[in-house]
């Protein structure tokens, strides 16, 4: 495929000479003395290089270069100038020209500068491509995000109008991500994707309007599992370079997809294994901890009898530390076997107050406001306060921990006598969460805090679930988080067939 060069000079003699010489060097030349015609050409054809005269009437070369760059931002431009105007040529380079050529042209200089400009175009494209792909690979995680980055990267590196990533799901091609303008025709893109997958190589089709569709298979494991399809609608013919570029890009995209698959698999597998191990370890710790607590109490009593007040204090510290450890262990083992609820009449508001005052005492951030808006109609109800305390304490603590000085935490309740349900809303004006954090918030051991265990939300949800309720979260990064807990005040009815027997 010949490289395309645009030549613009208001001196027709120079236009002719250059056209002849560049043709002889093997380039595909569009040469004109009319700047408007040059702009029109740049609208319809993608060039690899432009040679533009500096001094032209009425448009000067720099203005024309800027107009062309408006259409093809990365097109290298060589500005042509006579000897007297080197300074302006330097200015042209500062404004985006790749280099300048002095008239009259020396054959070697012409050849060398053109070769260098063409190479730079390729190099710039390669560099950008690698950068985009690198970023894609680095952004491990959520598949949808990886595919979006792939589509976006493909549009940017190939200068196509749009890109769609298809994946084969249950025998059907499903568009998973897209970038650029919406396609005028989906079937055309789908057909190209199917053809590329069958062939196992990039394919080119005429576009639905005037352009072209290029599709490259996405080979993730053994065979193609989808395709990367780009479309150009500007009468641009993709050349071999473009096909090669897309093939490379799609193979990199496939690596990203595979990595994400593997990571997701690993993450859930590892989490499950970690959860099992933690439960086992916790179980093994339970009895020795009970023993340790007994010895510490013993020690405390003996030291007390001997009148050693300092020793008694130390022994008490051991006891309370052991109690704390036992509580953690209890929490971890709870995952192996969800606790049975021990319901007793309790007040939701008293429980919330208790959690708030404990959490506020723990929180070190200054200047924090805490608001309560309780619905006085909310009655006492049979609840497991011990379990619910863990849940609400964590929700309130999370809210407070998310706040910066000057932040606000609001706890609201609302009672519906019709459904006998209380809705508790815990809202903070804190850091909020990214989509990724939000997506993993209930994962065991997922935490973004240096001292966090990442168990809080998982515990909270399981406790609310056990009560037959529902916990939902809304969060905006940088703005804050709202947690809704819908809690039925009656135990759920016994399973069908159990009642009235
Ligand atoms: N209100 C909130 N605002 C911002 N991020 C939150 C909020 N609540 C939870 N998160 C995010 O979710 C993560 C998991 O929360 P979770 O309560 O499960 O664990 P943790 O608070 O990190 O540790 P711990 O087990 O001690 O509670 C937190 O690390 C934090 O990134
Ligand atoms: Mg927490």
Architecture overview:
- The protein is an alpha/beta fold.
- It folds into 4 domains: 4-128, Response regulator (Rossmann fold, 3-Layer(aba) Sandwich), CATH 3.40.50; 135-265, Beta-Lactamase; 273-336; 344-488, Histidine kinase-like ATPase, C-terminal domain (Heat Shock Protein 90), CATH 3.30.565.
- It is 50% helix and 22% strand.
- It is built from 13 helices and 17 strands.
- The chain has helices spanning 12-24, 35-44, 61-71, 86-94, 107-138, 143-158, 186-199, 240-305, 309-336, 348-362, 385-402, 435-440, 456-466; strands at 4-8, 28-32, 49-53, 77-82, 99-103, 162-169, 172-180, 203-206, 212-219, 224-232, 344-346, 369-373, 381-383, 408-416, 421-428, 470-476, 480-488.
- A 5-stranded parallel β-sheet has the order 2-1-3-4-5, with helices on both faces. Strands 7-6-10-9-8 form a 5-stranded antiparallel β-sheet. The protein has a 5-stranded mixed β-sheet with strand order 12-14-15-17-16, covered by helices on one side.
- Helix 6 (143-158) packs antiparallel against helix 8 (240-305) and helix 11 (385-402) runs antiparallel to helix 13 (456-466).
- It is elongated, with a radius of gyration of 35 Å.
- Bound molecules: adenosine-5'-triphosphate and magnesium ion.
- Magnesium ion is lined by residues 394, 397-398, 456.
Write a brief caption for the model:
The protein is α/β, with parallel strands linked by helices and about 500 residues long.
């Amino acid at each position: 495929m010949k490289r395309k060069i645009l030549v613009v000079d208001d001196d027709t003699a120079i236009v002719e000479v250059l056209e002849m010489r560049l043709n002889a060097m093997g380039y595909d030349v569009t040469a004109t003395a009319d700047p408007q015609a040059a702009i029109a050409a740049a609208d319809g054809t993608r060039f690899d290089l432009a040679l533009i005269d500096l001094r032209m009437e009425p448009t000067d070369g720099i203005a024309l270069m800027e107009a062309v760059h408006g259409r093809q931002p990365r097109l290298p431009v060589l500005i042509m100038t006579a000897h007297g105007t080197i300074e302006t040529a330097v200015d042209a380079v500062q404004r985006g020209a790749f280099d300048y050529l002095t008239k009259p042209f020396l054959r070697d200089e012409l050849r060398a500068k053109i070769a260098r400009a063409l190479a730079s175009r390729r190099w710039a494209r390669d560099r950008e491509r690698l950068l985009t792909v690198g970023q894609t690979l680095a952004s491990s995680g959520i598949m949808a995000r990886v595919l979006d980055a792939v589509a976006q990267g493909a549009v940017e590196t190939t200068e196509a109008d749009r890109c769609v990533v298809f994946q084969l799901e249950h025998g059907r091609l499903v568009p998973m991500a897209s970038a650029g303008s919406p396609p005028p025709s989906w079937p055309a893109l789908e057909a190209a994707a199917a053809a590329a997958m069958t062939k196992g190589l990039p394919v080119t089709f005429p576009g639905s309007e005037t352009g072209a569709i290029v599709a490259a298979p996405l080979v993730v494991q053994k065979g193609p599992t989808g395709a990367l399809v780009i479309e150009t609608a500007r009468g641009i013919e993709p050349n071999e370079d473009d096909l090669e570029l897309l093939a490379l890009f799609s193979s990199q995209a496939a690596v990203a997809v595979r990595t994400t698959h593997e990571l997701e698999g690993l993450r859930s597998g590892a989490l499950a294994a970690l959860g099992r191990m933690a439960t086992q370890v916790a179980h093994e710790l339970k009895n020795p901890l009970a023993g340790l607590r007994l010895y510490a109490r013993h020690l405390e009593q003996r030291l007390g009898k001997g009148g050693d007040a300092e020793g008694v204090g130390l022994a008490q510290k051991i006891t309370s530390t052991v109690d704390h450890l036992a509580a953690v262990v209890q929490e971890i083992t709870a995952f192996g076997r969800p606790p049975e609820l021990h319901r007793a009449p309790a007040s939701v508001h008293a429980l919330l107050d208790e959690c708030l005052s404990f959490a506020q005492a723990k929180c070190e951030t200054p200047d924090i406001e805490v608001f309560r808006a309780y619905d006085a109609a909310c009655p006492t109800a049979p609840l497991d306060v011990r379990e619910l305390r863990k849940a609400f304490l964590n929700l309130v603590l999370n809210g407070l921990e998310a706040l910066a000085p000057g932040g606000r935490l609001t706890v609201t309740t609302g009672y519906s006598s019709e459904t006998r349900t209380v809705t508790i809303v815990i809202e903070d004006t804190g850091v909020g969460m990214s989509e990724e954090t939000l997506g993993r918030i209930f994962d065991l051991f997922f935490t973004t805090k240096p001292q966090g265990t990442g168990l809080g939300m998982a515990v909270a949800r399981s406790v609310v679930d056990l009560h037959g309720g529902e916990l939902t979260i809304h969060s905006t990064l940088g703005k804050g988080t709202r947690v809704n807990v819908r809690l039925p005040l009656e135990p759920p009815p016994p399973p069908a067939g159990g009642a009235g027997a």
